[in-house]
Amino acid sequence: MTITFRLSSPGDRAGVLAVLAASRGEGLSAQERAQQGFVQGSFTEEMLARVEAGPGVVVGVDDSGAVVAVAMTMTQTPAGGPPASLGLYMRRHHDDKRWAMYGPVAIASSHRGRGLMRPLLAEVSRRLDGYELAAGFIDADNAKSMAVHTAVGMTVDGYFTVNARRFAVVTFRPGENFSPTE
């Protein structure tokens, strides 16, 4: 089966929302969520439309056209919560850089462990070429996501706290030869 990576279109929104919702880890214990990874926040078609208007949502689609991987990119952080705190962190620590937000990222459970993170991030990196830095945040309790992101070569740049929850800031340089090793 071939997976193609590209920017999403309005016709992909239901698939994007399904992958993100399934990746929230609802119904799992805290330990299971940490081991399997999880996505934060809820998303709507309207939110996706706004994100698509920026650098966009990178999707991986299988031969049938089903969305199996998702990575959002934004140039403006949404107001409130961890995204706003990421923006504050970046202004404090990287005010001299042109940066874009990366994430959330999710891979359908049926396709995890198949090496999709590498080409997904390579497409994100290509789409963000021209930015000096890409930054995302990961809940410090999300052991799986922390392990995957550091294994693919992202840097843990620092941490911030929101509502007593600790988040790691992960960064990479877009446009470079992104050769992660999932």
UniProtKB/TrEMBL annotation:
GO molecular function: acyltransferase activity, transferring groups other than amino-acyl groups
Gene3D superfamilies attached to this UniProt entry: 3.40.630.30
Database matches in InterPro entries: Acyl_CoA_acyltransferase, GNAT_dom
Stored Pfam families: Acetyltransf_1
Residue ranges constituting the N-acetyltransferase domain according to the UniProt record: 55-153
Record's protein name: N-acetyltransferase domain-containing protein
Species, as recorded: Corynebacterium maris DSM 45190
